[in-house]
Amino acid sequence: MTNDVNLSKKHSMTQESGVLPYASIACQTPTEGMSVETSGAVFLITGTCPRCQHPTAYSVPIGVITRGVSSIETQQVEVSGHYDTIMVCSCGYPHPMRPATESGCGAYWRIALEV
């Protein structure tokens, strides 16, 4: 219990300074401010992270990559219609306690895409 209290105090002190610490947290899908464009074989999603409010961008390949028996037999199979993907904040701003392998605040949310 003491660790939870200390973590809450640390989290709240960091928020008071205006910088959110890293936390893997599911957020509600933003209802505005996100744009989706197609660039070659990827969707490029840009907008503002609903948690840290920093600008962020995320790319999602269009289609599904499949592999054959050998690694040379790789192809992209096109898909069409509606599908959901998970967007992860990749704002690049410094967030305390962020793992070295991450680049955002840890927030993620669902985005609907149309092909």
Task: Please describe what this structure looks like.
This protein is mostly beta strands. Helices cover 13% and strands 38% of the residues. The strands form three sheets. The protein has a three-stranded mixed β-sheet with strand order 1-8-7, with no helix packed on it. A hairpin with a 2-residue loop joins strand 2 and strand 3.
Give a quick precis of the structure.
The chain has one domain.
What radius of gyration results from the CA coordinates? 18 Å
What's the number of helices? Answer: 1
Distance between the termini: 48 Å
Across the major sheet, the strand order is 1-8-7
* Helix content class: 10-25%
Low-confidence stretches: 1-16, 70-75
Q: DSSP strand (E) fraction?
A: 35-45%
Shape: elongated
Q: List SSEs in N-to-C order.
A: HEEEEEEEE
Largest sheet: 3 strands, mixed
* Class of secondary structure makeup: mainly beta
Number of strands: 8
Mean pLDDT: 75
Key terms:
single chain, 115 residues, mainly beta, 3-stranded mixed beta sheet, 3-stranded antiparallel beta sheet, elongated
Topology:
Layout: H1 2-16, E1 25-26, E2 35-39, E3 42-48, E4 55-61, E5 64-67, E6 74-77, E7 82-88, E8 107-114
Parallel strand pairs: 1-8
Antiparallel strand pairs: 2-3, 3-4, 5-6, 7-8
